[in-house]
Amino acid sequence: MVGSLALLLVACADVPVEPAPQPLGTAREEAERERFGTIWGDGEGVTLFSFGRRGERNAGGGVGGGIGVNAFIWQATLDTIDFIPLASADPFGGLIITDWYQSVDAPGERLKLHVQIRDSALRADAVRVSVFRQVRSEDGDWLDARSEETTARSIEDHILTRARELRVASTAAS
Fold first, then answer.
1. Strand ranges across the sheet with 142-145
2. What is the pLDDT of residues 8-55, one digit of tens each?
3. What does DSSP assign to residue 101?
4. Sequential DSSP letters for 7-75
5. Cβ contact 117:81 at 8 Å
6. pTM higher than 0.90
7. Do the beta carbons of residue 120 and residue 70 sit within 8 Å?
8. Could you tell me if residue 45 is left (phi over 0), alpha (psi between -120 and 50 degrees) or otherwise beta?
9. DSSP string for residues in 116-164
């Protein structure tokens, strides 16, 4: 049995095998691969981020076709909360979760943020911030506490302002 299998493999060694044709995708995808390359270099692989010229709209009407959410809001969010360590960031789903942040000014209090980017357009309702707050009890345990509603709104406003600044800067550079 093993001998016949080896004989079959030896017999097939001289048969020329042509590679299967690779799908080219849409003309836009092909142009993006040629222009930006991929994570494995030019020509092949998966394109992660395909911004084009910064601010260029993708087929879905938003900016930054590769990440699924508005690239300006994504970058503005990272810029705004850069002092808080990140627990996770999902650029395709548009969710950023921070780790607990404890300020030196308020050692008995800590905050955690969930930022959801809900649209590919730069709109006022495209970002939603949830603030979770805990305070330290006398026993040393962390207890959930109410955060002020204005805190989340203030962070959202700062993110949107920064996103508009990034958009203006990108159109001025073009």
1. 86-90, 95-98, 109-117, 127-136, 142-145
2. 444 554 545 454 444 445 555 565 555 555 544 444 444 444 444 444
3. B
4. HHHHHHTTS--PPPPPP---HHHHHHHHHH-BTTBSSSS-------STT-B-TTSSB-TTTSS-HHHHH
5. no
6. no
7. yes
8. left
9. EE--SS--TTSEEEEEEEEEE-TTS-EEEEPPPHHHHHHHHHHHHHHHH
Is there a contact between 133 and 110 (Cβ–Cβ < 8 Å)?
A: yes
Q: Which position has the token pair 């222009």? A: 35
Length of the chain: 174
Look up residue 39 and give its two tokens.
């994570």
Domains, the chain, with CATH or none:
69-173 (3.30.530)
**Residue tagged 């040629």 (tokens):** 34
